[in-house]
């Protein structure tokens, strides 16, 4: 919102310098970009992300299949740093399990089961691809929309941040140039600038 403070420089003032007017124009352009371009960028990114994520969700819903797995034997607790168990609220255990693939083939391997204390013969659900390889739960439509909205908000905030950063950099360069001109003017005035008649 500091961009708005530069707009006061447009009022009629005999002391208004060209750099003050330039700062006001920079502030106005930044304000327009933040209030118009940033939301449009966010909306565009959100719509593109929504379309892409919904297509991915539809593909996953057709290619990820739920199957019932059977515990052969427990392998111990899931490690704490396991990315599959990090977000889970229920206890997860590593087990050796058998499961059928959608294509009819049988599979066996170590998997994470949402069982607190697994025993041989216990059943639990898994998601697999058509060949029986373990995969993740398919992305649902609501989650895809939520991710798209977050992407849109992020893009809008990033655009606004970049505009504000550019505005600050431009104003900083203008101020540096103004100070450099002041120093040159002081140098031209000489060491006796304030003493009438001195050095004449």
TrEMBL record:
InterPro entries to which the protein is assigned, alphabetical: MT1774/Rv1733c-like
Keyword Transmembrane set for record? yes
| Organism whose genome encodes this protein | Streptomyces graminearus
Bilayer-crossing regions: 21-49, 144-163
- Protein name stated in the entry: Transmembrane protein
Q: Which UniProt keywords apply?
A: Membrane, Transmembrane, Transmembrane helix
